[in-house]
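Thread: quick sanity check before group meeting

JM: Hey all, I'm pulling together slides for Thursday and realized we never actually wrote out the predicted structure for the chain we discussed last week. Dropping the sequence here so it's in one place. If anyone has concerns about the input, flag it before I start.
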Amino acid sequence: MRSKMNPLFLFSLVLLFSGLVYSSPAKEKAALNSPLQFKMADIDGKMVNLAGFKGKVVLLVNTASKCGFTPQYAALEALYKKYKDRGFTILAFPANNFKEQEPGTNEEIKSFCTMNYNVTFPLFSKISVKGEDICPLYKYLTSAQTNPGFDGEIPWNFTKFLVNRQGKIVARFEPRIKPDDEAVVKALEKALAGK
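JM (edit): ok, ran it. Output follows.
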């Protein structure tokens, strides 16, 4: 006696082997699971698609002009100059969330960074990195659902997230860890060596 095959099973096999099976919504969502999926306004108000930085190693930093950690701008600029030709960039996001240590306008922030630290890496418009008005990028960075292992509220200015060439976060450094710290440099060089 000959057994009959389930027509639905046969149809599934045909789809599978013909390459017509489309990506599931979950897979598509996973493909977008990166801090580089956002569009942010730069310091001059121009919208920047962060996806344009994919393929580079990126350090995301929330900054402030009147903080005890503000001198880290100098070390950030030195790090940027040292590694930019190898595919590294820094994206700085000024924020006024901590004791109002970034009270200035975007123009004032840009002027301060240029005049005091000769910053040449990309600066973005002032945002909120915590609280009810947290911007989508920082909501992503701090959420356990979207950034497990590196999540958690931003404790202060100059919290740093390292993103590899594939757009995935590979390290987080708290404010007291300076940009030229051995741990930061080691993680950066490892990410730069990755394809």
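AS: nice. Residues 34-193 form a domain with the Glutaredoxin fold (CATH 3.40.30.10). Residues 13-31 have pLDDT under 50 and may be disordered.
JM: adding both to the slides.
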